[in-house]
Amino acid sequence: MNPSDYQKTKDSFITYMKSRAFTQNSIRSRLIIFRIYWKWLAKENLEVEQVTYNELLGFMKWCSNNGASQRTIQNYIGTIKHLYEHFIREGKATKNPATDITIKGVKRKVLYHIIEPHELHALYNNYPATSLQQSRSRVILGMLVYQGLKTFELGMLEVNDINLREGKLNVKGSARSNSREMKLEAHQIMDIYDYVLKVRGELIQMDTKRKAQAKEETSKLFIGEGGTCYSFSNFMTQVMVTVRKLNPNVLNAKQIRTSVITKWLKMYNLREVQYLAGHRYISSTESYLHNDMEGLQEEVQQFHPVG
């Protein structure tokens, strides 16, 4: 392989990662993996754009023989998936050889007890909204239980992402998720309308020592007193403290999202759920099927124990 090809490919891959909003640390770590992969390609005398699924399995075996753990190999394959997505965008490849690769022996994501749709609905309906802060929290909760948004996605939302006339929410994409347009539930719209046109304005008017910062951050949908944008985790803490009082079985926002996606899987096909969840890869959506099956098995054992 021509040494100049390495630098050209590296530079174009960096441009791709920046376009997908990868952090500097993430880019740095993925470039280390890129260098390891390129070393193997040179050893095998393979052209990077033409690597096949079977050849990629050979790379995984080479990594394992050199002491890499299954978790490490999983990270390597994740970066290689992005590399070939970049090639496909550039027209340098037609298939991603890493798409169907699954690493065995890696600990699965935490499985959550599924909160039923009627329980999620009850959380929203019973959430108090007697103060400005509670009104804000109720809107946040609604986007958790009906749109299944991630915490960081909620924190990224801006006022212009809400289309009350059409009852839609625009969720921007990031390095971790795809953009999508989501339907708001009818019973959400009035609360959001009240928050955007009244509550949010009253929060901005509240005096705080950080009011100067407000001028720069008032485009954010969820703001604190004086228009300041605190760490969104502070808002989520307020939401979850009240939620756990309403339903002690709720552990965190991830559990709520898992429950929402599991509900979608019973209503729509995998591709539709992938879009709604903002997943970059269908495998991410499929992992929630496993959570649902585990939950079903637990129920069978609880009510119909064998032996």
Task: Please describe the topology of this protein.
Elements: H1 3-19, H2 24-44, H3 53-65, H4 70-90, H5 117-126, H6 132-145, H7 151-156, E1 162-163, E2 168-171, E3 180-183, H8 186-205, H9 211-217, H10 232-246, H11 253-265, H12 270-277, H13 282-303
Antiparallel strand pairs: 1-2, 2-3
Helix pairs in contact: 1-2, 2-4, 5-6, 6-8, 6-10, 11-13, 12-13
GO molecular function: DNA binding
Domain Core-binding (CB): 4-88
Domain Tyr recombinase: 110-301
- The helix/strand order is HHHHHHHEEEHHHHHH
CATH topology of the largest domain: hpI Integrase, Chain A
**Widest sheet: strand ordering:** 1-2-3
Question: How far do the termini sit from each other?
Answer: 62 Å
User: Quick one: CATH superfamily of the largest domain?
Assistant: Intergrase catalytic core
Rg, nearest Å: 23 Å
Outline the biggest β-sheet: 3 strands, antiparallel
Specify the helix fraction band: 55-70%
- Mean pLDDT rating: 84
